[in-house]
Amino acid sequence: MILLRSTIYFASLIVNTVIFSLLIITVGLLLPYERRCRLANAWGMVNLWLLSAICGLNYKIKGLENIPAKGCIILSKHQSAWETMALRGILPPQQAWVLKRELLWVPFFGWALMAVQAIGIDRKAGRAAMNQIIESGRRHLEKGHYVVIFPEGTRVAPGERGHYGAGGAILAHHTKYPVIPIAHNAGVFWRRRDLKKYPGTIEVVIGPPIETEGLKSSEINRKVEEWIESTMDTLPQALPQPSKKGSRK
Known about the structure:
By secondary structure, the chain is α/β, with parallel strands linked by helices. It has a single domain, classed as Glycerol-3-phosphate (1)-acyltransferase. It contains 8 helices and 7 strands; from the N terminus they run ααββαβαβαβαβαβα. Strand 3, helix 4 and strand 4 form a beta-alpha-beta unit. Helix 1 runs antiparallel to helix 2, helix 5 packs across helix 6 and helix 6 packs across helix 8.
C-alpha cells in the first residue's frame, strides 16, 4: 500500500510540477518577481498537501518566528527531496536558491527555476563559482531576499553527517547578513533514492539567527554545523516501531 500511494503521489508531483512551471514561465514572467515567487511557493504548498492526503506524511515546524522580515542566509540540513520542495512553500516567497547549474537545464522545472532567479553554479569551477555565490547572493540579500543553501551539497542518510561546504559561510562573512540554520528529519520518511514515502510527521526546527559580524567564514561554518548536528541528535532518526497488539504477559 505504501508503494502504491507513493507511486500515485510521484505521478501527481510530475503533473503539477509541469503545470506550475508552465504558469511561472508564461503568465509568471508578466508578473513582478514577488508574484512569480508566490506561484513557486504555491507549488510547494500544494505538494505538501498532496503528500499528506495521499501518503499520510505530515510535518511540524518549530522556530518559524526566527525567520527575519527580510534578508538572510538560510543553511539547511539535506537528507531528502522533501526539503527541496517543502522549504520552497514554508519559507517567505522571495527565495534565491543556490544549486548546481545542471538543474536549470531540466525542461519546465529548470526554466521555472531561472524565472525565480535561482543561482545556478558550476561545482567544478572553484573560485569562479564562489565569486558567483558572493556576487549574486549579495544582490539578492540587498533586495531583502532569502538565499537558501544546502551546505552538505548532497543528500545524506539519517544519522549521517556530510561535509559542510563553506559557500554559505563565505557569503555571510562577506555580506555580514545573519544565517538561519535549519534541521529536520525528512530522510527518515522520504529516503534518498527511494520511491516510498512513509506515513508520519517530519520535524523541522528553525534555529535562532547566527550573527556573522566580525566572524571568519570558518567560525560561521562551525557554528552552523554544530547547531544543526546537535539539533539533529534530538530528532528521531528512524521510523517508529509499530506497537504489538494483543500481546500477553
